[in-house]
Amino acid sequence: MTQQSIRELQRAIDWLTLQRSKDWGWGTGTDTAQAIVAMEMTKTGGRLERELSAKQLEIELLARLWQHHDPDSVTLQQQDDEDEALTVANIATYSMALASACHDPRQFHGHDLIGSLLQHETISDLDFSYSSLVACESGTHVRKRHIRRLMEIANTKHTVDSLSVAILALQCVEHDHRNRNVKPLLKKPLATLIALQQPDGGFGSLHTTALAIRALQEGKATWNRTNAVDWLLNHQGPDGAFFDIATTAEVIIALARVSGVAEGIADHCEVRPGADKDNVGTAVIIPHPSAVDTKRPVSVNVSEPIATDEYRLPQISDSGTNVTVSYSLWIGSNITEKRSINITADHNVTFYEIMQRASDLDSAFTFSATEWPNGHYVHTLSGLKEEPMSYHFWLLYKLRSCPDPQNPPSNQLVAPTGVDDLIVQNGEHYLFWYKKL
Predict the structure, then answer these.
(1) Where is the protein localized (predicted)?
(2) Rounded mean pLDDT of 101-126?
C-alpha cells in the first residue's frame, strides 16, 4: 500500500474510534464485536481502552445469552429477526472478538461458545465456514470431518463470500502441523477466487471485496491487489467511513492486513485463547494465597471518617527512594462502604504488588483475579465479585489527591494500564470503586 492508502486507512480507524459510545461499545447487534476485532488487530488506542470495550462486549453478550438461556440451543433465524435472535453467526462474531481481545470464548462465564458453534454442522455453508474459522483462530483443533466439508465448500461454491471464508478457515487450519497437506489443495480455490475479481478491481460489494482481499493476501497468490485496494478506497466517504460501523471494521481489517500494520486474529496474544486445550480454556482464577473467604465486604459506616491504616513494608533493596501511596476501596454508586490503607514501599513497585501487600495486611483488601496473557484482571475485592448481568464492575482510578465521596472521580481518571503495568509513584492515590456502569 502507498502512503496515501495508509493515510486513508488511518482516517477509517479515526472514524470508527469516534463512533464509540460512552459505554465503550458501538451500539446494538454485533457492531461492537466487529469494531473490537478491527481495533485489536490494528492496536488502536491503549490497552485499557480496548479492555473496556471488551468488557462492554461481555455485558452485551451475557444479556443476550440470558435472554436466550443457552447458546447450545441456538437455531438459525430469518434475517429479519436477527436483531432479536442470537444466531450461529452472531455467536461466531462475538467469539472472534473475544479471541482477538485475548479472552477465551471456550470459558465465557460458564459457556463454551466454540463448543456450541461446532455442534451446528447442518447450518449453511457460509456460517459453517465462519464457525470453523472462529474455532481455529480461537486455538481449537478443527477435526478432519470439518476440514473435508470446508474443502468441499472451497471447491464447489463460487460466490465470493462463501469461497473467501472457506479459504480463510482452511488457511488457518493449515498452520496446524497436523494439516500441512492442506496448503497444496488451496491452489484451485484461490484461482477460482481470483477469477471472480471484476474489471473495476472489486469483488462486488465492500463486504465481499474486503473478504476476498483477506483471503488472497493470506494465500500469497498473484492477483491484482492494487486495483482491489483502489476500489475500496474509491468507496470511502469524506468522513473516512465505509458506509457503516460493521463494513468499516471489515475494510479496516482487510486494508491493515495488506499494509502489514496488523497481526492476525489473536496472534498478538502471548498464548492463543484455548490453545492446546480441547475442552478447557486458558483462563485460570487465581486467588491471592493469603485470601480470606469473605462472603461480604468489611463494613464501614460512611458517617464515620475513612478508616486509614498505615504500614511500612520491608525494604526491597538498599538503593532508590521509598514511595508512599494510598489505596482505597469504595462500595456502591452511592459509596455506602469505604476503606483506605497507606503503604510505603520501595520504588518501581507495581500496583498489583501493592494489592498483594494490602491483602496480607488487611482482609478488607482480599482479592481474586483472572490471569490472562496480558496480565491479571481483578474481578473480586473484599468479597464482592463483578456482576456483568447487573452492570456492576470494579473500576481502578489513579488520582492526584485523596478520593472524596462528595466529589467522586470521573471515568476519565480510570487508570491507563492494568494492575501489572501500573508503576506506583510517591504521593499518588489509587481507588478501586465497585459501581454500576
Answers:
(1) Secreted
(2) 84
C-alpha–C-alpha distance, residues 39 and 51, integer Å: 11
- What's the confidence (pLDDT) of residue 322? 84
283 φ/ψ sector (left φ>0, alpha ψ -120 to 50, else beta):
beta
Contact 325, 428 (CB under 8 A): yes
Portion of the chain with pLDDT greater than 70, in percent: 78
396 a known binding residue?
A: yes
pLDDT tens-digit series, residues 200-229: 999 989 999 999 999 998 766 678 889 999
H-helix segments, 324-384: 351-361
* CATH number given to 3-69+84-269: 1.50.10.20
Contact 148, 166 (CB under 8 A): no
Contacts of residue 196, Cβ cutoff 8 Å, sequence gap at least 6: 158, 160, 163, 203, 212
CB 368 within 8 A of CB 286: yes
| Residue 127 marked ligand-binding | no
Q: Which fold does the domain 323-436 belong to in CATH?
A: Ferric Hydroxamate Uptake Protein; Chain A, domain 1 (2.170.130)
Q: What percent of the chain has pLDDT over 90?
A: 37
Q: Is 394 annotated as a binding residue?
A: yes
Give the separation between CA 63 and CA 59, rounded to whole angstroms.
Answer: 6
Looking at the chain, which residues constitute the CATH 2.170.130.30 domain(s)? 323-436
98 carries a ligand binding annotation: no
Q: Is 377 annotated as a binding residue?
A: yes
